[in-house]
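step: validate -> pass
step: tokenize input -> pass
step: predict -> running
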Amino acid sequence: MTYLQIFQLNINVTMTLFKNLLLSAGLLLATGSALSAQELGKLHYRAEGGLAISRISALGVDHNGDEGKYLPSFRAGGSLVMPFENTIFSFTPGLYVVGRGEKQGTLNSGQKSATTIQTYALQLPLDLSFRLATIAEKHRIFLNAGPYFAYGLSAKLAGDNLNRDLYKENAFKRFEFGVGANLMYQYKRVYLRGGMEASLTGVVKRSLGAPSYVSLRTPRYLTSYVTLGYEF
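step: predict -> pass
step: emit ->
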């Protein structure tokens, strides 16, 4: 790939991300305008934790490629439930600590263990919640979706004879913007949530090259999670 092609690719990606940001902002504005006339009901609080599995697209350890496997980690935090009276809608901003990254082998001979990229971030999702069904006032099903903002706390690359701090080396970006959606089943005050998230902005500032990692495109987090929680 020539430098001109890479430059054109970066321009196309930047324009796509800009359009996504404008679309997200427009959706938030439209939703806020539609619900602004509604009165808020009683506020509730949620606390939850569980398993998160993730990988990073377009990233190859010691090679040009994308051969990563999902990395198991955790997701824990809480959210505020702001219901709008006489509607099926709620605004549910939250604050979570999320572990993400991926696990890869390398093309190095004699590799004994997988190379791991492990990151932790503070995440602020701004979800709009739709109550899909209520059964006997005890069982509820919700669909939640919206954008999120994240700030990286730690990012480490570790493997055989390899241990690098990706934030200290200015290799990974701390700030990130993305979108997510999840389905939630609630029984009385206990609930089970399953969801998916994806970065819209790239998470890598620069390629460190072999034997660390190589990337010619725009790496992004792809995350799935299952959590168990309680509503107060």
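step: describe -> The helical segments are 3-35.
step: cleanup -> pass
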